[in-house]
Amino acid sequence: MALKETTKQAALIAGSGREITFAQAINEALAEEMRRDSTVFIIGEDVAEAGTPFKVLSGLVEEFGTGRVIDSPISEAGIAGLGVGAAMTGMRPVVDIMFGDFVTLIMDQIVNQAAKIRYMSGGKLKVPMVLRTTLGATRRSAAQHSQSLHAWLSHVPGLKVVLPSNPYDAKGLLKSAIRDDNPVVFFEDKMMYQLKGPVPAGDYTIPLGVAEIKRAGKDITLVATSSMVQVALSAADTLDKGGIGAEVIDVRTTAPLDKATIIESAKKTSRAVVLDEGYEGYGVTAEIASVIAEGAFYYLDAPVKRMGARNVPVPFSPVLEDQTVPTAESVVEAAKTLCGKL
Amino acid sequence: MARPAKSKKKPEAMTSVALDREKALHFYRQMLKIRLFEEQVNQLYLSAKMPGLAHLYIGEEAIAVGVCEALRRDDYITSTHRGHGHCLAKGASVDRMFAELLGKAPGYCRGKGGSMHIADQETGNLGANAIVGGSAGIATGAAMSARMRGSGQVAVCFFGEGAFGQGLLYEVMNMASLWKLPILYVCENNQYNEYTHYRETTAGDVAQRPKAFGIETVAIDGQDVGAVYTSALRLVERARQGKGPAFLICDTYRFHGHHVGDINRAYYRPKKEEEEWKVRRDPVRLLVERLKARKLADDKALAKIEEELRREIEAGVEFALNAPYPDPAEVDQHVYA
């Protein structure tokens, strides 16, 4: 399935040739879905004329008006709750939570309400809502504006969690998220907003729950999410020059998690590094490492290596902050160690 | 902490709309249905036929009935952990309610929700909620959605006075007022946040809180179904016309404990106080007295309604006890749509 998806992507991109930024891809997905479906609307802090502090939504209020691009008070729990209620009654809200760190303020609405309403009602009610937020450190924003907390939400049954790693995926995955009948939390790497990549102008979607092999290799598997996919691809380039073929898997969604693609790759290469920008403790890397251990144990030639954010609050000083996130260099070193070539 | 002296302020006097015989008897039927339903729930609990817990609505029936009678069938409500009364008043059927309480397959949520999570899309019930104040966002969002879709629907958010302690309520009231959303916040002040009197937990005059957001606020005697209905009707229609949200504070009392297992309550609530409310301010008895005084019904007519309700309740319990449990395989169903 993952390979089929890759082929489709290649074909689409070949026919396009157009390159836009990650932020533009998000903007385009929202605009296209709002044109297609009148029940889609955006609510959040500074989403209208300001277009968010990251300027991701610029131009949308001009096209869709303040009735569908709604500036809210600074009330994260309130707007998340409004989103849940609107979603239950026929709308498809896209709730903007400016920084991923602020999901702490909306946990009851997402975890106890949105995630459980379908189940608690015995399948009668649904919550087709998207919650867009950010992740990622190294923006010198310190401990309360730099975390990657997607593991918390991936832990809760009833939620879907999406982690795009490039402009093409961002557009296709966001369109799927908006059309999905479940609450979907969509994490955007704020350091990636200016990253350019090929994105077709027309409509396309990428299914939630399907990982993609971003680069094939036979010696080691690098499983990565969001920001760490670019790190893994860069590491794979370096490893290739040293004679190590690294296969890079972008999980794209942590919930649902495409276990089959990950296990299949680990069986093939016999070695794996798992990369994620969330805290390493009790995190996404632990979950994926256990998937590999349970699914490919007898094929492994080395223990699975986990690389997440260091277990410290994200510090301000660049000298300190840069140590907290895995880099291409540290991934190369870890991969070489696993391959016995250090 | 010491309990401050009670406010001398009387609830706002409301002139009830004149109820005709048919409406008055319907109110009686709905209130008594809730009363008898809850008495049966208590029995099911005491006889160990019901798993878990239940929070009885006995003593507060006039609020659910008075408010829901002012609503259209497609208007929305959100309810609380003490929510059986709201569900029934909005039109839920007794048999499927009991089935849900017993965790049976024909229950409103196929046994997945239980007492604290009954939802019924058919009657606009977006669900009871076991987080205090947790549905304030959902109800306000439903009101926003009604506005966006131009459906003319109104949302009602029921909650107890304990929700005054939750920040979410203030966040969404602010937005409801800013955007003139069609919502009625109904505070059932039964005096106790679980096992603590609300005056030990709640500063100032609570009516000033919604007023500070510019929300039309009315405080009434929640034991008087006519007063509740009259106020609700006015505030709901006002909201429907786009004139903005309203807040209805209903003074009431929980005749039983916080939940069915809360039997010995003297340490937080004087028995004398309980007796006073039960004798002087029982909403069902108050309605009966009014019906008789206005010669809208005699003992015979009331007894007939009670008899019919007892049969309905009995049949509902029978249905639920005999109903099948969900297939164990259903545990994995309905996690995702």
Secondary-structure-derived class of chain A: alpha/beta
**Largest interface in this structure:** A-B, 43 and 45 residues
Tally of DSSP helical segments of chain A: 12
Helix content of chain A: 25-40%
Rough outline of chain A: globular
The CATH homologous superfamily of the largest domain in chain A? Thiamin diphosphate (ThDP)-binding fold, Pyr/PP domains
Output mean pLDDT of chain A. 95
Percent range for β-strand residues of chain B = 5-15%
Number of strands of chain B: 8
The unreliable regions of chain B are 7-15
Task: Tally the beta strands of chain A.
Answer: 14
The count of helical stretches of chain B stands at 11
Give the terminus-to-terminus CA distance of chain A.
Answer: 35 Å
CATH class division of the largest domain in chain A:
Alpha Beta
| CATH architecture title of chain B | 3-Layer(aba) Sandwich
CATH superfamily of chain B: Thiamin diphosphate (ThDP)-binding fold, Pyr/PP domains
Number of domains of chain B: 1
N-to-C order of helices and strands of chain B: HHEHHEHEHEEEHEHEHHH
Strand order of the largest sheet of chain B: 2-1-3-4-8-7
Describe the structure.
Chain A is globular. By secondary structure, chain A is α/β, with parallel strands linked by helices. Chain A has helices at residues 2-14, 22-36, 60-64, 76-88, 107-120, 150-154, 167-179, 227-241, 259-269, 284-296, 318-321, 328-338; strands at 19-21, 40-44, 69-71, 92-96, 130-135, 160-162, 184-189, 196-198, 212-215, 220-224, 246-250, 253-255, 272-279, 305-309. Chain A has a 7-stranded mixed sheet, with helices on both faces. Chain B has a single domain, classed as 3-Layer(aba) Sandwich (Rossmann fold). Helices cover 42% and strands 11% of the residues of chain B. Chain B has 11 helices and 8 strands. Chain B has helices spanning 21-46, 61-68, 84-89, 94-101, 136-149, 167-178, 208-212, 225-240, 271-280, 283-293, 299-322; strands at 76-79, 125-128, 155-160, 183-189, 192-193, 196-197, 216-221, 246-251. In chain B, the strands form 2 sheets. A 6-stranded parallel sheet of chain B has the order 2-1-3-4-8-7, sandwiched between helices. In chain B, strands 5-6 form a two-stranded antiparallel ribbon. The model of chain B is unreliable at 7-15 (pLDDT under 50). Chains A and B meet through helix 4 and helix 5 of A and helix 5 and helix 6 of B.
